[in-house]
Every structure is written in C-alpha cells, then in structure tokens.
Amino acid sequence: MGPAPNLTVASKAYLKIYFHAAKHLHQTINGVLLGNQTGGKIVVEDAIPLLHHWTSLSPMMEIGLDLAEQYAAEANLKIVGYYQGRAAVGDVGLGPVGEKITQRIKEKFADAFALTLDGEDFGTEKAALVVWTYTENQWRRIGSSGASPPFTSGSSIQLDSPDLPQKALSYVRDKSLHLQFGDFDDHLEDVKIDWIHNRECIPVE
C-alpha cells in the first residue's frame, strides 16, 4: 500500500460536506471536492454538493458533474476528489458508483481521492471522514492499519482547524444552518437555490 497523501481539508469544504449530510441524515449524499495541489500537498478548498436522491450514474449526476467542473475551471480550481455519505449509518464503503466517479476524476487529476462519511462518528468531536486512495490497482481505505489514522495527530491528512467538527455541530444544533443548504437535486426543483456557493449558510468564505 502506498503512503497516505499530504492532504488538508479547509473549513468551507468541510462545512459543506457536514451540512449536506446533516440535512439528509437517512439518505445517500454525494458531491465533488475542489482544490489545488502544490509541491505534493493537496488543499481541498471547496465542495460542490450533487445529489441526495441516489439514482446511481444518472443523467442528472452527469450534468451536475459537468457543471461542477465548469465552475472549478472558472474558480481556478481542480476537481481533486469525491465525497459520499451512505444511508446506512455504519456503511463507510465507497461502493461501485463511488469508485466509478472517483476513477473518472482520477483521469484528470492523478492523485484523486474520496472521502466517505462515518455516520457513527458524525456529530462528535471527530472529523467523521474516511479517506480512500487508489493503490495496488484498487480503491483502499487509508489508515486501516499501520500509520496514524487520518485527521489525528501525526497523520499527513488533516482538517485546517481541529475544532471544525465542534463548530459544524454547533452551526447545525444551535443555528440550523444545514436547513438552508442546497445541492444540485434541490436546484433542479427550485432554480433559485444557490447549490454551487450556498452563501446563505456557509459562514466562511
């Protein structure tokens, strides 16, 4: 197995993933991760939420991916990865659809990776994210053995602020910001919903 990537998830990206999952706790959600790579270090600066009506590799998924890619280019960012939360709390697997989408991203960004939500840790002080990279011709979970688990001391995979999970929880519990969050599915039902930026509910820019 190859080494863990040098990866930092910025506040805006983490909050978007968190709010997306909090709004659709019992549904599968997914989106893409935007950022840049400098000197081998990947910084995930933003996340674009796609779907919560899980319809596999649907035409809507393809359109959403294309629009996210257009936005990334305009923002001088790259699609560097994929994120997913599953309906079942204990399911942190990437699954066939997640693997196909991340593989597609990898065709344009060689060090593409995936984050899956750990529902059992969601709402705690932990990041509640599992990291997947492509090694030995398959997608593998990072930190299942050996090196420090992602988002813990000593790991090359970190949030840009260790208190982000607590902040995200307070935004959900005390301010209900996740209820204002919208993904591409929501935008298809109401075109006024700002699914790309979610400016109304993301307190960092």
TrEMBL record:
GO cellular component, as recorded: EMC complex
InterPro entries in the cross-refs: EMC8/9, MPN
Gene3D superfamilies hit by this protein: Cytidine Deaminase, domain 2
Domain MPN as annotated: residue spans: 7-138
Highest taxon, organism lineage: Eukaryota
Family that this chain belongs to: Belongs to the EMC8/EMC9 family.
Listed name of the protein: MPN domain-containing protein
Organism, scientific name: Coprinopsis cinerea (strain Okayama-7 / 130 / ATCC MYA-4618 / FGSC 9003)
Lineage, opening ranks: Eukaryota, Fungi, Dikarya, Basidiomycota, Agaricomycotina
